[in-house]
Amino acid sequence: MKKKAIVLFSGGLDSTTCLYWALDKGYECETLTVSYGQKHDREVRSARQIADKLGVKQHFLTLDFPWLVSSSLVDKNQPIPDQPMEEIESGKIPSTYVPGRNLVFLSVAASLMDAVHADAIVAGPNAVDFSGYPDCTPAFFNAAREAINRGTERGVTRGVEVLAPLMDLNKADIVRLGAKLGVPFELTWSCYSGGDKPCGHCDSCKLRARGFAEAGVKDGSVQ
Fold first, then answer.
1. Cα–Cα 20 to 30 A to 1, which of 120, 134, 150, 207?
2. DSSP letters for 96-115
């Protein structure tokens, strides 16, 4: 029987590449997209468009955690930082960090995985070109993998995979992989700001732009 995977899916470059990677590996995929009070829903629209295009089953969840306003991605009164690349890569945790986001997302994905009898969770963290978030590291994902295998029925009876295929890739490598897999870059959304076009100033926009430039690939989302 074909293995089933739950793909944590924001509609961004990394998670879309993960979805196409999982499909290419032969998984039957279901996507899980989580809204947690972001300043915009632009990425959710991208997630829906891409999943519709692929014809995969989609799950949407809204979290109402009032304390997440500590993040500038959620608090409308905090500006999204515009930092130079050296500051982004300094390892200092920026104001865009959402407390425990990947821990919560993986917990929800584990519950869904258990309920629908899936065999794997696929997520798109990257520990090379990233903003220093502590929940995007190999150590965190290794611990989460062990916890999910100890704390779910599927885990203790069959063993499940928690896969982070982009963990050791830089953004240029991710772009190259996405191009190889046929990712529709023009449908993806990575920008921390809403609107019709990426802002070009946030951490995510700058890392994405450098990745496409270094890969020598045109970013169809930038007009």
1. 150
2. T--TTHHHHHHHHHHHHHHH
